[in-house]
Amino acid sequence: MSSLQTASETKIRPVPRHPSAEPRWLRWLLIGGALSFLALFLFVPLVAVFVNAFHKGWEAYWQAFLTPSTQSAICLTLLTAVIAVPLNLVFGVMAAWAIAKFDFRGKNLLLTLIDLPFSVSPVIAGLMFVLLFGRQGWFGAWLDEQEIKIIFAVPGIVLASVFVTFPFVARELIPLMQSQGRDEEEAATVLGASGWKTFWRVTLPNIKWGLVYGVILCNARAMGEFGAVSVVSGHISGLTNTMPLQIEILYNEYNFVAAFAVASLLAMLALVTLGIKTLVESQHASALRHKHPVQRPTS
Amino acid sequence: MSIEIRNISKTFESFQALQGVSLEVKSGELMALLGPSGSGKTTLLRIIAGLEFPDPGSGEVVFHGEDVTGQGAQQRQVGFVFQHYALFRHLTVFENIAFGLRVRPRNRRPTEAKIIEKVTELLRLIQLEGLAGRYPSQLSGGQRQRVALARSLAVEPRVLLLDEPFGALDAKVRKELRRWLRRLHDEIHVTSLFVTHDQDEALEVADRVVVMNHGRIEQVGTPKEVYDQPANPFVYDFLGNVNLFRGRLNSGRVQIGSANFQAPDHPETLDAPALAFVRPHDIKLSRQASSEASMSATIVQLSALGPYVRVELRQEDGELLEVQLTQEEERQFLPRPGETVFVELRNLRVFASDYSI
């Protein structure tokens, strides 16, 4: 009797909405708002870059990359990334390891310092290096004597790029390592693994994807950095121009096609790294699924 | 392999986790470290494992006559099972168990065939032969804990240490697994020490129980000893439900309200405040005052708890009293709420009340 009653009651009652579900119009408003914002501020500018780059045809686009100064800018950008990324990879892992796995005095200070390049304007970062290593700077006279050139030369550009990009890997890893805790490392140690083996066999595999992501972000920034590099570079064409600086110069020379062509290359680098990241993530996930079909735990 | 702990202290900043603890775990014994949270039991376990170090100069950890105080966890060859398993999430069950063998220096590392043999044997022992290729995330809590145990046994540890091994499991799996651990220990006989805050677990599984509180050991004994002859009010209170009475002790007798009991453990004490404890199942209800050891109380509430019925009574002084009856006893006596009855206390344990709980 009572079960009959409840059955009829449920029939009359309106279908309950999920408690967190928003009304339809609000959902459309939110989704539409987010999408149009993306289109306006990301998609349209990106398309504009490519349209401008190609608007005099393939030939003109291709020509832009054949000038020696642009080629040297591309090389310098790659060189900067090749030095800055591995350095920050090592530094980032070390800093994250220290912060996540150990308690020590000054830990919060270190955390704050890691964020410094994010909070300081890149131009100031560049000026900092000029004040240190420039001709009138603290070490300027000494460097002059040794005939070492840092400012307005390649070492300055690398230094500025390393400074600006150093938080990326560490920032990506610290929350990850903190959430993973120390249990697995302790387990490995008790099982007789040395610190070195524990790092390679336990810690590194656990942070692999965070590390890949951090490196991708770090690389993108190292290649795209403008402000800090601009201050220390001196804009010597063919010698100390990176791609972003070269774009500015070309643009100021009213060489729009070439400027946008180099810009499109940078944009493509960014798109490709994002693509690689997505691919790597999805392949990892599907590899896990295929090898080991998930079964519901029984007990 | 015996474990001996001599006068170990441990301080974390301003908090003293262990205060001069000494303990001996006999070879082949399964011992439980029982205590409330913050009593220092996990700290003691981690010091034995080499994951924490005692305060400088405070004492020694000795394995079978060898002082290991200065050794780190890597050298001590202990098996350690973590409360939250700490399985390597990127490795399969097989590789988790094989880990301790694979990380050995080359000259002591077994051959691949030996490793496979050993892991297969352990998988059989933990009854998970079919799951060697699974990842930890694909296992249930009970299965994970068994893998963690197999992983720690793979290195043939000198001693096995388990930190709240069943703490994260639900009640039913917990019971199954602790019985399984007992049977396993009877098979392999490795000296084992496990931490728990669950008195049932300690009393059911262990050969001997160490009761800890505030960084000190309160009592060490067999489950029967600590339950039947608790050394002090804390142990009595911690091991199961109790009723507490305050009274006065005088030459071998204790006066509680209008009732008077024998206290044969304290023949010499003259007129001192006393605490007396009675377990809920050691109280008999009756409708007549049978002796001077019975007192009157009013039934407040009855509640059925599976095979038992819990009767809550209010004494004359307003204090509540808990009595546990079997269903059989309840049917015979038929207690009714509001009724005033007599309670007769049996197996009363009296402590002179310089102790506090």
What does this structure look like?
The complex is a heterodimer of chains A (299) and B (357). Chain A has 299 residues and is mainly α. Chain A contains 14 helices and no strands. In chain A, helix 2 packs across helix 14 and helix 10 packs antiparallel against helix 11. Residues 1-10 and 290-299 of chain A have low confidence and may be disordered. Chain B has 357 residues and is α+β, with helices and mostly antiparallel strands. In chain B, helix 3 (93-102) packs across helix 4, helix 3 packs parallel to helix 5 (141-154) and helix 4 packs across helix 5 (141-154). The interface between A and B is medium-sized, with 24 and 37 residues.
> Distance between termini of chain A?
37 Å
Approximate strand percentage of chain B = 25-35%
Shape of chain B from CA axes?
elongated
Structural class of chain A: mainly alpha
Radius of gyration of chain A: 26 Å
Level of helix content of chain A? Answer: over 70%
The run of helices and strands of chain A is HHHHHHHHHHHHHH
Number of separate helices of chain A:
14
Using DSSP, what is the number of strands of chain A? 0
- Please give the count of helices of chain B: 10
Q: Which key phrases capture this entry?
A:
heterodimer; A: 299 residues; mainly alpha; 14 helices; disordered C terminus; B: 357 residues; alpha+beta; six-stranded mixed beta sheet; five-stranded antiparallel beta sheet; 10 helices; 20 strands
Give a summary of the structure in a few sentences.
Chain A is an all-alpha fold. Helices cover 78% and strands 0% of the residues of chain A. Chain A has 14 helices and no strands.
Helices and strands in order:
The complex is a heterodimer of chains A (299) and B (357).
Chain A: H1 2-12, H2 24-54, H3 57-64, H4 68-101, H5 107-119, H6 122-133, H7 140-146, H8 154-165, H9 167-180, H10 183-190, H11 195-224, H12 227-233, H13 243-252, H14 256-291
Helix pairs in contact in A: 2-14, 3-14, 4-8, 4-9, 4-11, 6-8, 6-12, 8-11, 8-12, 9-11, 10-11, 11-14, 13-14
Chain B: E1 3-12, E2 15-25, E3 30-34, H1 41-49, E4 60-63, E5 66-67, H2 73-76, E6 78-81, H3 93-102, H4 112-125, H5 141-154, E7 159-163, H6 171-188, E8 192-196, H7 199-205, E9 208-213, E10 216-221, H8 223-228, H9 233-238, E11 243-250, E12 253-256, E13 259-262, E14 272-278, E15 283-286, E16 294-305, E17 308-315, E18 320-326, H10 327-333, E19 340-345, E20 349-352
Parallel strand pairs in B: 3-8, 3-9, 6-7, 7-8
Antiparallel strand pairs in B: 1-2, 1-4, 4-5, 9-10, 11-12, 11-14, 12-13, 14-20, 15-19, 16-17, 16-19, 17-18
Helix pairs in contact in B: 3-4, 3-5, 4-5
